[in-house]
Design brief:
Pfam families: HNOB (PF07700). With 190 residues, the protein is of the alpha+beta class. The protein has eight helices and six strands; from the N terminus they run H-E-H-H-E-H-H-H-H-E-E-H-E-E.
Length: 190
């Protein structure tokens, strides 16, 4: 049984590989190399199947915030949005063809994060509690000691973009972004 501290201090290599893709796509490879140096990250590459300290993500994104003047929340959100096509590709076998944004969100915990945990017991995706509020609204409660609500909001927006539903899905944070437990309201406009 892994202990809780390890579980949230380490994160699956895929998240780091996707962060590198995000930085190289939004900026360039030189920026990525400078961020690693500035953040004091010693290794020069991340492997998909390894685990790395979560604080390296904050250190890298923190440096990017300093050099671009953007908030950490905003950068984390952009990163979350960017990673959705990769996530969908990596875990496509758990996605049913008829699903759209609403169904995808309803099933993230029981199908997607559950598959992540099952495929690699070292991972600890955040706990999501998803509540239907009437026919057109979901409230997603995100709970994680890693406090990455920006990424959560970005993934939700990225999922709506993936299904070409950005214009009818509204995402609103109901709690302070840096809390351990955060509520996110998602409205589906008809
Ligand atoms: C397409 C469906 C999804 C897949 C395949 C997926 C997969 C993953 C994976 C592989 C990780 C790394 C876990 C680890 O290393 O312990 C992760 C973390 C994370 N996921 Fe998901 N996820 C999905 C949907 C979502 C949604 C809808 C949200 C938003 C509420 C979300 C929020 C997060 C956050 C914020 C993290 C960072 C770690 C943390 O906060 O503790 N994910 N996810």
């Amino acid at each position: 049984m892994k202990n809780e501290a390890d579980a949230f201090h380490l994160m699956h290599g895929s998240m780091f590989v996707m962060l590198q893709h995000y930085v190289e796509s939004a900026y360039d490879h030189g920026t990525w190399v400078k961020l690693l140096e500035g953040a004091g990250v010693e290794h020069t590459s991340f492997q998909m199947q390894e685990m790395y300290p979560t604080h390296e993500i904050f250190a890298i994104v923190g440096r990017l915030g300093e050099s671009t003047g953007q908030s950490i929340f905003n950068l984390m959100e952009q990163f979350g949005k960017f990673m959705v096509p990769d996530l969908m590709r990596m875990y496509s076998r758990y996605v049913r063809p008829e699903w759209r944004t609403y169904e995808m969100l309803i099933h993230t915990e029981d199908k997607m994060h559950a598959a992540v945990r099952r495929e690699d017991s070292r991972t600890s995706p955040p706990k999501l509690i998803i509540t239907k509020k009437g026919a057109n609204q979901l409230v997603i409660e995100y709970k994680s000691k890693r406090r990455m609500a920006g990424v959560a909001v970005g993934i939700i927006k990225g999922i709506s973009r993936y299904f070409n539903e950005s214009d009818k899905v509204e995402v609103m944070l109901l709690s302070p972004a840096d809390a351990e437990r955060v509520q996110i309201k998602v409205d589906f406009l008809s």
